[in-house]
DNA sequence: GGGTTGAGCATTG
DNA sequence: TTCCACAATGCTCAACCC
């Protein structure tokens, strides 16, 4: 049944070693002639550039597995015994976090896009159908799945598997409409449900079960029936368990139009998890499965615990922790925080070309699309990543961090062109652009929380007469504090202990840099940039406080640095009280250096980031970075790990990193 | 030692 | 005839900087 077991390829059956994702079992694919599917997929792919790339990736994976085997063999008995101690301790710690008090429900719509299309066109009922086109299909209905057709399969292969397959083009607005209908139902059971995608969601139904005196299974039945009637006939499957990880596994068990309930007691969970294949776990994909299986002999979740010492010896701590938690049937049970998007991107595939003019025009199109999407969502970002897929399917990415936040297609295109130019000549079949590092990342607002700025205001009575613009600034800086920082700052301003006070003062120092970043964007979605923003800011201040400034000329040709109200830098909005003499000097130096840098390399360009980093770094050094990198370390505690790397030599094997 | 940045890769739907 | 998408997220590592 497992694709991995077919790796014993014989010369007469070369397709048996061609492990594509399409041969992995999916709901509705039981009884499919897997060998036939594998053979056809192999025959149609053989010799293509895509196939060659797959072979290259496969070879790389085998190398990784081999390398891990070697490292495994080198482990001594005492090494393993030491790692076992680590495992034993972690098991105790993880067990202490086990929470069997919650009831989580995972809902997954059945063949969602295909079902929606059938709903709006009943003549498709009972016929094999796929949503998508000849290059790629998004989903297939259950009739098509019987032929081995499935999501993410190229349409031309799907047609070969099922010559009568009907193709229906993707219609996102339609799916969004139906998705909204299902979400209306979900909200009745958990107003804070987590939408995984258009067609799936996690609901914490603990309260609704308690209030109505119903079991998780009864609620699931009711919800599914409600989804069916509200959508006019769409079916879904559900899983009920103590945590989200288990609930997701459960929803797949009786698909389609079914449900599975896993009782909330430890021994039931452990029995359930013991024989569960690792691939069933969200986050463990083809590569991880092969590495764990072929290098370490780990096939089931139980094996993760039994071979825990190997995992801790060979993988990073966070990966090993994840594996061990899986082996214990532990998953997230908390009410998740609001998550905001981290990046936005746009990419297009086309016939491979090395024609620079053509590539530039594609790039311009994509920059325009991306800029449009960003404006639509009111986003500005400062890191641009160019993604290229060469004619041989090799993926390359090149990134640059800009000096300022932007969403303009001109800015994006200007820097993207530079990045692309550095790669030429090359034949390319896909170009993608991604923008990340949003100004939003530091805007997790929660008006109920105390803020450093409030503290500053209370501390400094000379700033009691703040005008409206200042109030706006305060709100912006309030929004600048990340969740982590807000946690540390949850104090009542009237009852502040010495330690809290000390913390607050330390935060005051660091908050200036954050304020600086936030203020650049506080007027969104008006999308003011650079000089416009500065002008606007100055206009807003001119009537009340322009006269109350001290000027420091830092460069002959540039606008002098002014401390508005004796407090705030007119160039970037950073706030530094007069007593911060050294910091102010450093700040002036920063603007001077920035200007010199601009003179050297042209405006807002940062394609040689090192020197720039040095300058910006200096600026940040003043803020005694207590701040975590936003959304990285903290989020890793809440979001499933998707990739697993070994402790060392991760790149030494493939060594293909390009500089 | 710890933070940032850039690059590569895995995973998901 | 058609010949393997797109969007988003996060982990890890190396290099660099303070």
From TrEMBL:
Bias (Polar residues) ranges: 645-659
Cofactor: Mg(2+)
Low complexity bias locations: 601-610
GO terms of molecular function: damaged DNA binding; DNA-directed DNA polymerase activity; zinc ion binding
Domain annotation UBZ3-type: ranges: 562-599
NCBIfam families linked to this entry: PRK02406.1
Biased composition (Basic and acidic residues): 517-526, 540-550
Record-stated family: Belongs to the DNA polymerase type-Y family.
Cellular component terms per the entry's GO annotation: nucleus
Domain UmuC positions: 104-285
Record's protein name: DNA polymerase kappa
Keyword Zinc-finger: yes
BP GO terms, sorted: DNA repair; DNA replication; error-prone translesion synthesis
Reaction(s) the record says it catalyses: DNA(n) + a 2'-deoxyribonucleoside 5'-triphosphate = DNA(n+1) + diphosphate
InterPro entries: DNA/RNA_pol_sf, DNA_pol_Y-fam_lit_finger_sf, DNA_pol_Y-fam_little_finger, DNA_polymerase-Y, DNApol_IV, Rev_trsase/Diguanyl_cyclase, UBZ3, UmuC
Subcellular location: Nucleus
SUPFAM superfamilies: DNA/RNA polymerases, Lesion bypass DNA polymerase (Y-family), little finger domain
Signal peptide range: none
Residue ranges of the region described as Disordered: 512-550, 594-659
Keywords: DNA damage, DNA repair, DNA replication, DNA-binding, DNA-directed DNA polymerase, Magnesium, Metal-binding, Mutator protein, Nucleotidyltransferase, Nucleus, Transferase, Zinc, Zinc-finger
Annotated PROSITE patterns: UMUC, ZF_UBZ3
Gene3D superfamilies xref list: 1.10.150.810, 3.30.70.270, 3.40.1170.60, DNA polymerase, Y-family, little finger domain
Highest classification ranks of the organism: Eukaryota, Viridiplantae, Streptophyta, Embryophyta, Tracheophyta
């Amino acid at each position: 049944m497992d694709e991995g077991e077919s790796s014993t390829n014989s010369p007469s059956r070369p397709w048996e070693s061609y492990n594509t994702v399409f041969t992995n079992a999916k709901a509705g694919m039981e009884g499919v002639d897997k060998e036939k599917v594998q053979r056809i997929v192999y025959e149609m792919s053989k010799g293509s550039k895509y196939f060659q790339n797959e072979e290259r990736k496969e070879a790389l994976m085998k190398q990784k597995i081999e390398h891990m085997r070697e490292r495994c063999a080198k482990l001594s008995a005492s090494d393993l015994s030491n790692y076992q101690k680590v495992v034993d301790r972690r098991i105790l710690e993880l067990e202490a976090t086990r929470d069997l008090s919650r009831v989580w429900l995972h809902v997954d719509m059945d063949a969602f896009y295909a079902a929606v299309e059938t709903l709006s066109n009943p003549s498709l009922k009972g016929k094999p159908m796929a949503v998508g086109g000849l290059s790629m299909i998004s989903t297939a209905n259950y009739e098509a799945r019987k032929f081995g057709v499935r999501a993410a399969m190229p349409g031309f292969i799907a047609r070969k598997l099922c010559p009568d397959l009907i193709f229906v083009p993707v219609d996102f607005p339609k799916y969004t409409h139906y998705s909204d209908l299902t979400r209306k139902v979900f909200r009745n059971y958990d107003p804070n449900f987590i939408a995984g995608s258009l067609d799936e969601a996690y609901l914490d139904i603990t309260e609704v079960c308690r209030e109505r005196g119903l079991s998780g299974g009864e609620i699931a039945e009711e919800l599914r029936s409600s989804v069916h009637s509200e959508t006019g006939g769409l079916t879904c499957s559900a899983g009920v368990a103590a945590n989200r990880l288990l609930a997701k596994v459960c929803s797949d068990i009786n698909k389609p139009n079914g449900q599975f309930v896993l009782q909330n007691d430890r021994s039931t969970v452990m029995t359930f998890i013991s024989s569960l294949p690792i691939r069933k776990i969200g986050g463990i994909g083809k590569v991880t499965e092969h590495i764990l299986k072929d290098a370490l002999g780990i096939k089931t979740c139980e094996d993760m615990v039994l071979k825990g010492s190997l995992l801790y010896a060979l993988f990073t701590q966070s990966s090993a922790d994840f594996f061990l938690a899986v082996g214990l049937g532990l998953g997230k049970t908390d009410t998740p925080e609001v998550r905001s998007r981290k990046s936005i991107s746009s990419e297009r595939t086309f016939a491979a070309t090395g024609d620079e003019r053509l590539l530039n025009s594609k790039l311009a199109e994509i920059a325009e699309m991306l800029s449009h999407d960003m404006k639509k969502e009111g986003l500005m970002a400062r890191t641009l990543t160019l993604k290229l897929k060469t004619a041989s399917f090799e993926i390359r990415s090149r990134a640059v961090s800009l000096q300022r936040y932007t969403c303009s297609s001109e800015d994006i295109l200007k820097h993207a062109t530079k990045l692309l130019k550095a790669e030429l000549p090359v034949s390319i079949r896909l170009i993608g652009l991604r923008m990340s590092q949003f100004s939003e990342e530091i805007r997790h607002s929660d008006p109920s929380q105390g803020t450093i700025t409030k503290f500053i205001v209370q501390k400094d009575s000379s700033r009691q007469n703040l005008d409206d613009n200042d109030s706006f600034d305060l709100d912006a800086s309030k929004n600048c504090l990340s969740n982590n920082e807000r946690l540390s700052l949850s104090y009542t301003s009237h009852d502040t202990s010495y330690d809290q006070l000390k913390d607050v003062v330390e935060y005051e120092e660091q908050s200036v840099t954050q304020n600086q970043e936030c203020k650049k964007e506080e007027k969104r979605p008006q999308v003011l940039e650079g000089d416009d923003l500065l002008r606007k800011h100055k206009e807003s201040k001119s009537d009340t406080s322009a006269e109350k400034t001290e000027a420091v000329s830092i460069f002959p040709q540039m606008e002098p640095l002014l401390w508005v109200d004796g407090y705030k830098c007119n160039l970037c909005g950073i706030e530094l009280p007069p007593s911060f003499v050294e910091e102010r000097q450093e700040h002036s130096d920063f603007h001077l250096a920035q200007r010199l840098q601009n003179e050297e390399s042209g405006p807002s360009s940062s394609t040689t980031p090192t020197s720039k980093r040095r300058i910006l770094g200096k600026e940040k050094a003043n803020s005694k970075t207590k701040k975590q990198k936003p959304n990285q370390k903290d989020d890793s505690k809440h979001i499933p790990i998707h990739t697993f790397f070994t402790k060392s030599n991760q790149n030494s094997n493939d060594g293909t990193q390009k500089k």
